[in-house]
Model the fold of this input.
Amino acid sequence: MSDRFAPTGRPHQRPTASPDRRARRRAAKRARIVAEAWSLARRDGLAGISLRDLADRVDLQQPSLYAYFESKLDLYGSMFEDGQRQLLERCLAREPLADARDELVAIVEDLVRFSSEDVVRHQLLFQRTIPGFEPSDAAMEPARRFLELMTDRLRAAGVEGQSEVDLFSAIVAGLAHQQVANDPGGDRWVVLARRVVETLFTDADRPPPNRPDIERPTTQGAPQ
Amino acid sequence: MSDRFAPTGRPHQRPTASPDRRARRRAAKRARIVAEAWSLARRDGLAGISLRDLADRVDLQQPSLYAYFESKLDLYGSMFEDGQRQLLERCLAREPLADARDELVAIVEDLVRFSSEDVVRHQLLFQRTIPGFEPSDAAMEPARRFLELMTDRLRAAGVEGQSEVDLFSAIVAGLAHQQVANDPGGDRWVVLARRVVETLFTDADRPPPNRPDIERPTTQGAPQ
DNA sequence: GTCTATATTCGGATAGAC
DNA sequence: GTCTATCCGAATATAGAC
Done:
């Protein structure tokens, strides 16, 4: 028997942590769990996350995760909200550009880059691959705010009407998807994204911007 | 004891099935298994296919499936090839249109419709959802042929160069993806697909086709 | 080729003490 | 909130008889 547990004079009773301090610790741990879940998802696939592995990474036993999440689907819900918030914050962090069209291009670039950085994040946010997973209303909140932001920028650039907005979303989603599939981490599709915005979704009367680094589409004998 | 097994005069020995007859029966069973696998995937999700359930549906015991497929990933491989072949055959079945642009539009419509008809098929063919699954070279063969066909049609319509072809693929994929997500089975995005082809990927000198049912894009105050 | 029986592993989730 | 212990079910895959 060692004396490691011998009485020391200091009583057992820790100074009771204030309720909000406890809440902050809890929130921090939740955040850490979600972050490790992303990391695991990148390794094993989104559906391949194991709660045992996850618990290991955050120094918990597997059942203890249930103190933070009601179920595995609930964990996906938190990851979804986290991912949507990352996207929203990235767009808000940038200094908005004065010119409406430039700003629209910038936001599309943000989105395409965002998607290409992390394939599984893209999958959870924009593809429905987890059977039974449906984001809760709360988890959808940052997604709604992003959509709102996008709609505003489109309107400012002269794109209005549901049909136009839908078409725009579809094309941007396609670019993001291709970027993810073909050139993750690359810049190639970002350039194409800009071209699409400039050709298809801006006022035809407006003179084309003078950007020598971007080819104008010709549809005839395009180089390379 | 019934007399169901009483000797009948006809000897046990069945006329030995010819080797190719046996091969045909085997191929037919494989096809049936794949078909039921699609059906199960639609119900439970692509990753949710259970070999037990699948075996039930084709009147086999679960281990017997291993007489037809080496593993579950191998089954996904067969499904992938099957799906790609369906797409290819649909495009080849149609009478090709004389006008190159019309033909290009038609093939895009084929693809978007194809994707929207079956979400999980779209997922297996065009999204990478199953961890560890990579289509074999053999399974990729119909996919290669489809790409070839598409490249031909694009060239005929005056779209050339890797950059143009990539952009086209991205946009079509985006349309397909949106159709799947927002309006499965509907025709809405097929219409938009046509519009994209006509705006972005055809010779600007060519007069626009006279199709009163399709709005020309205005980017200003589009209705609805 | 099909079966029965079983190996093996792993999954998510719960009970209850502390 | 965290632990230990455990439940229960399901999964893919293999062995070996017929």
Residues 19-44 of chain A form the longest helix (26 residues).
